[in-house]
C-alpha cells in the first residue's frame, strides 16, 4: 500500500485553542474514514491536508510534499466542503464547464471533463440541463463531487458528504466512492454516521479533543477492530441462542443498530415492528438480512433471547455494526 499522507507528531493550535494535538498517522490508498464528535479536529485536519493552514509543529507530507507550500501538491488534491458549493440558478454542466475554463482548460476539454465527471458521479444525463435549484440534496452532493473530479485529483477529501442523504442516497454515493477508489483515487471522508463509514472504509482516523484516542496514537485500522469487537453476542445456528451478557454496572450502552441474519428477515421485521422495538430497518433482497435500528436498544438486548424465540425465525448471525467505532470515539468514563 503506497502512502498518500504521513503525519508525525502533528499539532495545530489556534492561539491557545487546541485544534490538533500531537497526532501521528499514515493514510494509504483506498477510502479512509475520519471519525470524531464536534470539535474533535476533523476540519482542522482537512485544512492541514489541503494546505489551507500550516502545522504549528510536527511533520506532514501529502503526496510526498508540503501542501501549504507546494502548488504541485495542491493541484493533485480536491476538497469537498460540508456546505453547499454550487451556486443557485445554474445548470450543473454549465457550472462545471465554466469552472474548467476558469482553471485554464479549453472549452472543448472543459466540456469533455464536465461530461466525464457527471457520468462518474452517476447523475442521470436528463438532469444535466436542469437548474440545480430544483435538485434534491443527493443530486447536489453529486454535482459537488463532480466539481472535485474535474481536474482528476489523486486525493479527494470529503467533509460530511453523507449529510442529509437518505439511506438510498448514501448507498449510491458510497458506490461512487468505491468506484473512484478502485480506479486509484484515494478518498478521505468524514461522517457522523458511523455505520456509513464502517461499510465504506478500510481504515479510520479516530479523533477526540484534537487527539487520537487509541492508546498507541497511530492510525487505527478500526475495521479489523470493529469486526472483532462489534459482535456482542454468540453466533449460532437455529433459535437456540446464547443470551447476551447481563448489563454491567454502570448500565451498559447498547449498540443502536444490529445486523441480524436469519431465515426470514421480513417476518422478523414485522414482528419487531409489532413489538414497537424498531425505529427503522433495512432488508436485503434475499430476505435473509435485517439491519435493525432500535427505538430503545436496551429493550431489545435485555430480553434478546425471548424476543427472538418468540419471533419464530431461525437465527444465523447477529452483529452489532458500528459499536466499536462508537466506543472508540466515546469520551472516557469520569473518574
Ligand atoms: N479558526 C479557529 N480559531 C480558533 N479556534 C478554532 C478555529 N478553528 C477551529 N478551532 C477550534 O479547534 C477545535 C477543533 O475544531 P474543528 O473545527 O477542527 O473540529 P471538527 O471536528 O471539524 O468539529 P465539527 O464536527 O463541529 O465541524 C475546536 O475546539 C474549535 O473551536
TrEMBL record:
Region described as Disordered: 236-259
Domain ABC transporter: 5-234
Keywords (A to Z) from UniProt: ATP-binding, Nucleotide-binding, Transport
Transmembrane regions listed in the UniProt entry: none
Residue spans of biased composition, Pro residues class: 242-253
CDD domains for the chain: ABC_DR_subfamily_A
Molecular function via GO: ATP binding
Superkingdom in the source lineage: Bacteria
SMART domains named in the record: AAA
Keyword Nucleotide-binding: yes
PROSITE patterns: ABC_TRANSPORTER_1, ABC_TRANSPORTER_2
Keyword flag Transport: yes
Protein name in UniProt: ABC transporter ATP-binding protein
Naturally occurring in which organism (per UniProt): Actomonas aquatica
